[in-house]
Design goal:
The chain is mainly alpha-helical. 70% of the residues lie in helices and 0% in strands. Helix 2 packs antiparallel against helix 7, helix 2 runs parallel beside helix 11 and helix 8 packs antiparallel against helix 9. The radius of gyration is 23 Å and the shape is globular.
Length: 274
């Protein structure tokens, strides 16, 4: 691959990956454990567990929570590779952010590397932080993988979340898909106008990439203006956005009781261990 096409391929892959993360409407239709749980109960239970996990500093508890998340994925007919694809990036980014704590935290050194020697306290902090991020992201990903987005919005409405906030979430979700599709179309159009056998210098590559991103931002701005005008044409304000507030799905009482019990046990266990 030439240097001039590295950014094209990277942009296309990022757009495709983002659309894959946002689109998961086939999994909520499967017959699984979490799919049978009421969306409102699911959202409240997972949120409570995540909030408790944020305040937990016990590594074994966080690892057990992460294993439980993958176990729930199997019970919910979610392929483990799908969950891993959604979970792996945030812990990596979290590690990059807190990596300096390995050497900046006072404590006994684990390895003798001079001023860059990692300490026991630093390693414990970084590993615990990354495990916490992985566990929380896995649990939240399960909610999105096993619940249609319309049901998530309906659950937020039933929890009395402000309608304006729910509308913003709905519009953001819907038009992120449109924006990433627009970005992929621009990349495909650029590839179609590029002569493959012609070598491209590094400066030309960056100039063309800058033009591509500039065109993308201009089209994004224009589309946002059209969306705003369309909302104003429908009356404007909150009523212009359909957030699915009355949508309901069938749930099973046994699944609801089982999920509530598991969530309560997880919260109590983390509080006791802490």
């Amino acid at each position: 691959m030439t240097r001039g096409r590295v950014l094209d391929r990277t942009t296309a892959e990022l757009g495709a990956h983002a659309r894959l993360l946002l689109l998961g409407e086939s999994y909520p239709a499967r017959d699984g454990f979490l799919q049978r749980v009421d969306p409102t109960l699911k959202l409240v239970g997972v949120t409570a567990v995540v909030v408790t996990a944020v305040a937990t500093h016990n590594l074994l508890t966080l690892l057990a929570l992460l294993v439980a998340a993958f176990g729930l994925a199997r019970l919910s007919s979610i392929p483990l590779r799908v969950l891993v694809a959604r979970v792996w990036l945030p812990p990596v980014l979290a590690f990059v952010v807190v990596a300096p704590r390995l050497v900046l935290t006072p404590g006994a050194p684990v390895l003798s590397l001079g001023p860059l020697s990692p300490t026991e306290a630093g390693v414990a902090y970084v590993v615990t932080f990354v495990a916490r991020v992985a566990a929380c992201v896995a649990l939240l990903s399960l909610v999105l993988l096993t619940t249609r987005f319309a049901d998530v919005l309906a659950a937020l409405r039933r929890l009395r979340v402000p309608t304006l906030l729910v509308g913003i979430v709905a519009v953001t979700y819907r038009y992120l898909l449109v924006f990433f599709a627009e970005l992929q179309r621009l990349v495909v159009a650029r590839r179609a106008r590029t002569v493959r056998n012609r070598s491209i210098s590094f400066r030309e590559s960056w100039r063309a990439s800058g033009t591509l991103l500039g065109t993308f931002f201009v089209r994004t701005l224009e589309r946002s203006e059209r969306v705003q005008m369309a909302a104003a044409a429908r009356g404007g304000g909150r009523r212009a956005i359909d957030v699915g507030g009355t949508h309901r799905v069938a749930s099973h009482r046994r699944s609801n009781v089982a999920f509530a019990t598991l969530a309560l046990l997880a919260i109590v266990g983390m509080v006791v261990v802490a």
